[in-house]
Design a protein that fits this description.
about 190 residues; single chain; Lysozyme; mainly alpha; about 0% strand; globular
């Protein structure tokens, strides 16, 4: 009898572990097609976008942040309005004004706007050694904070690790470091396949 109980428990453990692995894989990669499509449009590495979403919401499309950020990439209503205005499509502007939370809860629109905003921020820091770290810090804390942290530095010489050390908000420093670690791991994993 005890032998059967051990066998059943062993089988249950194996099934649970396999189920967890497959569910986690599904959960973490169910938006990959959207991420890849919009990352290509804005010339951003899809692994970076994936890493931002992982950090921001762990792929929960209906997430609402503490200061009103919405969706997978935690886009603010202000950024959504700016994006809609730049597109020139009045339909988007009307939809955002009518219900910005609903609009940004749509994974397609959220990833599209989040990628647009990442690229818009990246333009400020292009060709700097700390380009990606600076972009992520601006995405999290705002570009004015990045300017504050680099005011007395030549950003064309400032190494990534030196920039990260200058980040004056510990949660932003952790945010940037975590995304960079995950991004680099994802890049390594893809290159070894």
């Amino acid at each position: 009898m005890a032998r059967y109980l051990v066998s059943i428990l062993l089988i249950a453990a194996v099934v649970s572990a396999a189920g967890y692995h497959f569910f986690r894989d599904y959960w973490e990669h169910r938006y990959d097609d959207l991420i890849i499509r919009h990352a290509r449009i804005y010339n951003i590495d899809d692994r970076l976008v994936w890493s931002v979403i992982y950090e921001e919401t762990y792929f929960r499309s209906g997430s609402i942040g503490d200061v009103g950020e919405v969706g997978l990439m935690q886009v603010t209503p202000l950024v959504a309005r700016e994006w809609a205005k730049e597109t020139g499509l009045s339909q988007f502007e009307r939809e955002i004004e009518a219900d910005v939370v609903r609009f940004l809860s749509d994974p397609e629109r959220n990833i599209q706007i989040g990628c647009w905003y990442l690229e818009k921020l990246r333009e400020r820091y292009r060709n700097r050694p700390a380009e990606t770290a600076m972009t992520l810090a601006a995405y999290n804390a705002g570009p004015s904070r990045v300017e504050e942290w680099t005011r007395d530095a030549n950003t064309f010489e400032l190494k990534e690790s030196e920039f990260i050390d200058r980040i004056g908000i510990s949660s932003t420093r952790a945010y940037v470091s975590s995304i960079l670690d995950r991004y680099r791991t994802a890049t390594l994993m893809r290159s070894t396949r």
